[in-house]
## 1
Amino acid sequence: MPDLTATAIACPNIAFIKYWGNRDHRLRIPSTSSISMNLDGLFSRTTVTFGPDIVADQLILNGEVAQAAALHRTRALLDQVRTISGYYYSARVESENNFPTGTGIASSASGFAALAVAASRAIGLTLDEPALSRLARRASGSACRSVPGGFVEWQAGKDNEDSYAFSIAPAEHWGLVDCIAIISQAHKSTASQEGHLIADSSPLQAARVASSPVRLATCRLAILQRDFDSLAAVVELDSNLMHAVIMTSTPPLLYWLPATVQVIQSVIDWRKGGLPVCYTIDAGPNVHVLCPADYAEEVSARLVQTEGVKDVLSAHPGGPARWLPDEH
Ligand code: PMV
């Protein structure tokens, strides 16, 4: 009989080469492979308890009963571990983020990666890293990249089996820092889940998908060789391509605010002035400004002074999702 309860932690990640659009929406097989860095110091901590006395699956997020959509995705992941293990108990899931909610940092990647690890352990499964990554992927694509540590590649694959993420370099490999310029704390107007569904309606998505393997290879090599200039060029290009698709889909979406553009412009100017920095933006207005660790203090100080920036968080490369065996 398994313990029926387990706790795990996982960090969110920032994509250097983005995931936007699926070739199979149901299985969440993406249209392109992607690359990201885990963000150390930011964590979701998730406890899963299965039991015969629990009448229905429950999800408590940061101390509050979660909305139906989050519970629905959680239940789908729990159903997978129930099917594999053969135990059909309902579960209580409690998840907390150590980063304040409303910072605009997505917690779905860290939350579902921690859930995959905690749920499988609680129900007595010892899954390897690819299996955990696949499990997290089905709940939220980017969550599969928060399972392995450091710098991570999600190979798109063609089916459920070969679509999972693996580490291409450990966290200690390269002292990069992500200085996150918080511009708005408001909730995303359109969830990325909906954005993936309409990505193919943009006339630019086919070109983005076709040219993505070259950017993927360039980014992977830049990480392995710790080549910041090469990384900066490909990261900005890939982010711009994703937002071009987002702005030209039907219906068109726009995640940027005036201050987003202000930060983009400043980063370009700072780089022209000799500072090694680049920007990348997810499905929201906040700007992730990457730089080598030696420059992080200077970059954060400049961002804090930039008009429209409300706060700056910074994160070094983070480790893998982890089961905490001593905690229940
Ligand atoms: O995993 P999702 O469905 O939240 O999509 C993530 C989308 C981006 O954050 C914009 C890009 C990425 O690769 O993380």
Note: The chain is about 35% helix and 25% strand.
## 2
Amino acid sequence: MSGLNILVTGGAGFIGSHLVDALVEAGHKVRILDSLVEQVHGDTPPEHINPNAEFIHADVCDAEAVSRALDGIEVVYHQAAEVGVGQSMYEIVRYVKANDLGTAVLLEEMIKRPGQFKKLIVASSMSIYGEGAYRNPATGETVYPQLRPASQLESHDWELRDGDTLLEPIGTSEAKPLFPTSVYAVSKQDQEQYCLAVGRAYSIPTVAFRYFNVYGTRQALSNPYTGVCAIFSARLMNDQAPTIFEDGLQSRDFVNVKDIVRANLLALETDRGDYEAMNVGTGRPTTVKQIAELLAKGLGKDIAPDIVGKYREGDIRHCVSDISKIRELLGYEPQVTLEDGLAELLEWLATQEAEDRVEAATAELSQKGLVK
Ligand code: UD1
């Protein structure tokens, strides 16, 4: 599909802004609805807002503004959300409001316009899985363990076990039962399911993307509640050692924002992904320690990470995507290697200043009993 009228909620954010750029580049007419959350953007609008997109500064909970934003729109990308996992555990109303109510408002306004929309694409998250999928090497079975018990974590025993058998992490597919472990994660599950349910009922072809750990340029470096790449970068740029929870050998699937954008554009080209939820990742595990080391090396800082042996409430040990479904349905293939992606991130970091608010945020989490 080309030359479409497209609305991107959260289009000033990290992922949304890259998506807007790609859509404008592909010849679409793009409108952004974004409330410019202070924690993410500070008090000035970010320079990366695409000047060739129309910008509406409003909250996704504001029905009148959302209605205005939907005028003439054929495709909606719903990327607006509050995104701090730890913070969501005490600013519960804020997260439920932005993520749940915001999606509800958007959907109510959309269904007032029957037949107008060709596609709704919603940003979901790997966080809805909880722990990733594992294989029990003794039985060969795929297992879906719950969070590690507090007693295990207190003794600094980090890996997943079934009795005495150490479980092996394997790719997590969409078949894994959902077990969200934070308010943020529950709200992402809600967003995904509200969109798919309403989309199905009103014949709005809807696609939900479960993003894995997204990194790249324009990450909110001064937002201490966001992902580990941005947090470690902000620490290192201020000559501080990154703090590693557990032992640093926990693994994640770090996917570059360009690959996330690629998946979002593919969803426009086919109906094969309609009414489906799909992982968007790389399928490759990387440990948190590796990330700290790669960033320090790339920034030319001789700073070893601080492995403190503490742990965060609700943290999972391993989760890496199985991308068979999106490969098959959309023909998606991740194209950015971690090496290239981090190199580009580092080049961008050299042009940025990051206010290091990490210590204060960690202290806040500790005080609330969320870091132990
Ligand atoms: C969570 C969400 C994910 C969201 C992401 C960024 C879950 C399961 N997933 O991912 O959807 O996109 O947050 O908001 O909730 N770490 C440190 N030191 C730090 C910060 C983090 O060691 O200063 C460790 C964490 O303990 C964790 C790993 O790095 O083991 C990754 O943390 P993070 O980047 O916050 O992402 P997730 O928890 O994987």
Note: Residues 83, 85, 125-127, 182, 185, 213, 226-228, 231, 243-245, 250, 252, 288, 312, 315-316 surround uridine-diphosphate-N-acetylglucosamine (CB under 6 Å).
